[in-house]
Amino acid sequence: MPDLAAPLIAWYPRIARDLPWRRPGFGAWGVLVSEFMLQQTPVTRVVPHLEAWLDRWPTPAALAADAPAEAVRQWANLGYPRRALWLHRAATEIRDRHDGVVPRDVEALLALTGIGDYTARAVAVFAYGDRHPVVDTNTRRVLARAVDGRSQPGPPNTRDLAAMTLLLPEDDTDAAIVNAAAMELGATVCTARSPRCQACPLADRCAWRAAGHPDTGDERRRQARYEGSDRQARGAVLKALRDAPDHGIRHDDVLTDWPDTLQRDRAIDSLIVDGLAEVSEGLLRLPS
DNA sequence: AATGCGTGGTT
DNA sequence: TAACCAAGCAT
């Protein structure tokens, strides 16, 4: 396998975007919150929300002291609002099990609600500087192309972590840079649709480029249509609840103009199942 | 392990 | 314009 670490380490400091969570001393809690927000939400949408969140809740204990409803409101339109609930739950777990300090061990991080393989290692590496493989969708695409010569990554699997480990230098700091650089490369140069190989530090050793950018047929599962979907209905109901008074609103007053009443009711029920809504004294509201 | 889960910008 | 895409996770 070609040496990918050296060119990434040389490239990264020149082009790395100035992002809040990359500032020295940003703090583990800030990194943790940023990673929750970045799960499937683009960087540019996250930045302002992250700063507002940390201004309001500078520590896990501060967040845990407020109701989940407040987390869901503050989450606003970031999408996938279950993440707000999970982040609140994780903050509570950090307060109760870790004395309010974001854990450093990957195993302990994995045990927190809403934290999986990616986020656990991202926190351990970017907040604490430890040496672990951090593999997100960008890194998987970079490796699929540069190493395997494929146009897109397949579905995530346990071998991804082993593949990334092979690339990491021994030094902790360098390893963290390689992790960050692979993600940055995938996000800004080796993009899914129109990669800019002229700007790529790995171009001279990329298997996919050497093979002439073949379409290797690695198609993603098609994303379901959003317009008219249950997801859209859930989003609309939740927005109504965010905008409603704390004590809630009558079931029949939720989204009165929604075209499909059955779909609206289905959305309400599923939000209750997910813990994003609750019924109290006959009124529907965000979770207390 | 395949599926469901928001929202908005880009092509 | 419809489809694609975006620092994943839990079930």
Molecular structure report:
Among the domains are: 27-126, Orthogonal Bundle (Endonuclease III, domain 1); 230-285. 51% of the residues lie in helices and 3% in strands. It is built from 14 helices and three strands. It has a three-stranded antiparallel beta sheet with strand order 1-3-2, with no helix packed on it. α2 runs antiparallel to α8 (117-126). The longest helix has 17 residues, at 172-188. The protein is globular. The N and C termini lie far apart (53 Å). The structure holds a DNA duplex (11 and 11 nucleotides).
| Percentage of residues assigned to helices | 40-55%
Shape estimate: globular
Q: What structural category arises from helix and sheet content?
A: mainly alpha
Uncertain runs are none
- What string gives the helices and strands in order? HHHHHHHHHHHHHEHEE
Q: Tally of extended strands?
A: 3
CATH superfamily of the domain at 27-126: Hypothetical protein, domain 2
Q: Return the CATH topology of the domain at 27-126.
A: Endonuclease III, domain 1
pLDDT averaged over residues: 96
CATH class wording of the domain at 27-126? Mainly Alpha
Distance between the termini: 53 Å
Largest sheet: 3 strands, antiparallel
Number of helices: 14
CATH architecture of the domain at 27-126: Orthogonal Bundle
Strands across the major sheet, in which order?
1-3-2
Report the sheet-strand fraction.
under 5%
Radius of gyration: 21 Å
